[in-house]
Specification:
The chain is mainly beta. The chain folds into two domains: 4-128 and 281-291, Diaminopimelate Epimerase, Chain A, domain 1 (Roll); 136-274, Roll (Diaminopimelate Epimerase, Chain A, domain 1). It is built from four helices and 18 strands. The termini are close together.
Length: 292
């Protein structure tokens, strides 16, 4: 028996998601079904599927149940949570003119402010992504800490890892999901499908990791990301946050930067010892119905 599911396709700086509204917690898709939806040849095509579910705490705005393109469960997605905010606002899940949204994720509650068009549709969103997690065993990584922040936090700073493609130096940060950031002379020339895939699953990252390749230029930090469970994506919100923090911690930039990704620009503002604020767009692509 085949079932039909209505969906909305949204993207944040090109990082795209299939949204399925399930406010009664009745839809349970298998990893294989998620992967089929995300397949860009045989399915709708997306970097992930996001279920819009009711919050556990009724004072919050909703629960973002995010699945990677391979069907695996993910703790957090920065571009996805901005798109989630747009869905809540545009589809009337929250009351009109609600000033702040409190979105439940597997990485905790994210507080979101936003701007709207004259028609009341969400245009951009600023997400308080919380404080970066630096402790190696919490990222997690097996790499030993080799540096301290000015506030006395131990972290992994540009620790070298060898590979068949050469040695790369990684700064390790969690934004609710694991990231490993390496600064290179030209991120655009990186063979990311090979190098990113190698490091994503290497022994240094027991839960795998999102791998960021970044280059600091006059107009901002240019970056590409190989996302855990997805491959290269046009943008990664948590990856942009981690890269902005890593650039600051390694002395390459100040604490506020434009992160320039393949799909667009995100603005990242880090308060050392405090939160990371991420500001960026969210857009609707199309709606439809698929059958499984």
């Amino acid at each position: 028996m085949r079932n039909d599911y209505d969906f909305v396709k949204l993207h944040g700086a090109g990082n795209d998601f299939v949204f399925i509204e399930d406010l009664n917690n009745q839809i349970d898709l298998t990893p294989e079904e998620i992967a089929r939806i995300c397949d860009r040849h045989f399915g709708v095509g997306a970097d992930g599927v996001i279920f819009v579910r009711p919050p556990e705490d009724p004072c919050n705005s909703g629960f973002m149940d995010y699945r990677n393109a391979d069907g695996s469960i993910a703790q957090m997605c920065g571009n996805g949570v901005r798109c989630f905010a747009k869905y809540l606002v545009d589809y009337g899940i929250v009351e009109k003119n609600t000033p702040l949204l409190n979105v439940e994720t597997r990485a905790g509650v994210k507080v979101i402010s936003y701007s709207t068009t004259d028609e009341g549709k969400l245009l951009t969103a600023t997400v308080d992504m919380g404080a970066p997690i630096l402790s190696p065993h919490l990222v997690p990584t097996t790499l030993a800490f080799n540096a301290m922040t000015e506030l006395g936090e131990a972290f992994v700073k540009e620790s070298p890892i060898e590979s068949p493609y050469g040695t790369f130096d990684f700064t390790c940060i969690s934004m609710g999901n694991p990231h490993a950031v390496t600064f290179v002379d030209d991120c655009e020339s990186i063979d990311i499908d090979c190098i990113g895939a190698y490091f994503e699953s290497c022994d240094a990252f027991p839960e795998k990791a999102n791998i960021e390749f970044a280059t600091v230029k006059d107009d901002g930090i240019h970056m590409r990301v190989y996302e855990r469970g997805c491959g290269e994506t046009l943008a990664c919100g948590t990856g942009a946050c981690a890269t902005g923090v890593a650039a600051f911690l390694t002395g390459r930039t100040g604490a506020e930067n434009d992160l320039i990704l393949l799909g667009g620009t995100l603005h990242i503002a880090y308060t050392p010892g405090g939160s990371v604020l991420m500001t960026g767009p969210a857009e609707e692509s199309f709606t439809g119905t698929f059958s499984l």
